[in-house]
Write a structure and sequence with these properties.
Elements lengths: L1 H31 L6 H18 L4 H29 L4 H23 L14 E4 L2 E4 H23 L1 H11 L1 H6 L4 H27 L5 H16 L4 H17 L9 H15 L15
Antiparallel strand pairs: 1-2
Helix pairs in contact: 1-5, 1-8, 1-9, 1-10, 2-3, 2-4, 2-8, 2-9, 3-4, 3-8, 5-6, 5-8, 6-8, 9-10, 10-11
Length: 294
Amino acid sequence: MDLLLQLLATGIVVGSLYALCALGWSLIYGTTLHFHVAHGAVFSLAAYFAYVGQKLLHLPLFVAVILAILASAGIGLLIDLLLYQQLERRGALRTSLFIASLGLLIVTENVLAIIFTPDPMQMDIGVLNTSLIIGPVFLTYLHVLTVALAILCFAALMLFLKRTRWGQAIRAVASSPEMARTVGVDLKRVHLLTYAVGSALAAPAGILVAMDVGAEPFRGTRFVLLASVGVIMGGIGSIPGALLGGLFLGLLENVGIWQLPSEWQTAISFGVFLLFIVLRPRGFFGRRVQSAEI
């Protein structure tokens, strides 16, 4: 029973990381319908931005993290402006956009590996690495911070989408791009904003992982893949669904190995995902994929 409680706690922490990444991915896909696998590149870059800020520029950890999130938002904006919008202007198919996004992910990760080597780059996190023992469950303050940030980012995103003018514009474009254009919404500006916000949401996940186990160049691929799986399980176009899907996936990965070897972790996740797609293709909260509503 102690092991099960530890796996549940670890699953919530890991699921919170997936949820952070999935929130940004869901927002971007729901608004633009771009299968944005380069989201994984932003995830990896955020980790190295924070690492460079703290270890090479000798900035305080908090300052390095804030600057890394802002830089990641800028990278997301540039990806849309210089890649996706240019391809769409030339009439590229969505398949071409996906291949370009995949190429950008691969190039970014390999450039990071060349510059920093594939070895994990450790950060100094001070008191966040302090152990926190709750009964039979072992955590650190960093793990608690991870769960808290996932909840906070979800709440902030929902408030932004429902209470601000730009958030309402994003919802309008996600619901009906043609209708939004008819009433005067600038789709290109909304897409740029969506990429900036979505990338800023992925950045904390990459930074938190780097704080825990070190920054690695190829970790973004796994996270964006699992984030997209979480979004599909939660329901494409649903922000609450992205949160729930990410948490569910984290719990599934960890609790699933309670009685099985850890080598089965990935197989369990994708096996359940395949069953989920067959039995409930719209996910927990999803409607029709074509509408991509938030």
